[in-house]
Amino acid sequence: MMDEKTVAEQLRKNPAALKALMQSRDGQTLMQMLTQGDGGAGLQRAVQSAAKGDTTAMVQMVNQIMQSQEGAELVERINKAARR
């Protein structure tokens, strides 16, 4: 399995792949999971931190999602899509 930093780096280098991911059903589901509970405030802070080089909050959010079977399967599908 590819780690989150590697996938994130691939997506950062390939804006078209990132756009395709975000328009996909899995991308939309991921966004819903990342924004539920606080309306996206936590995700916004995590993205701002990641843009400054601190990916800790983003990794924590993904790890939290992966604790459910649905979330783990979603992240695995996204990892596979990012490798293509």
Describe this structure in words.
There is one protein chain. With about 80 residues, this protein is mostly helical. It has one domain. It contains 6 helices and no strands. The chain has helices at about 5-15, 15-25, 25-35, 40-50, 55-65, 70-84. Helix 3 (about 25-35) packs across helix 6 (about 70-84). The two termini are about 15 Å apart. About 10% of the residues are buried.
Helix content estimate:
over 70%
Largest sheet: none
How many domains, in number, for the residues?
Answer: 1
Straight-line N-to-C gap: 14 Å
Quickly count the helices: 6
List keywords for this structure.
mainly alpha
Brief characterization of the structure:
The protein is mostly helical and 84 residues long.
Topology summary:
Blueprint: H1 4-13, H2 15-23, H3 25-35, H4 41-51, H5 56-65, H6 69-83
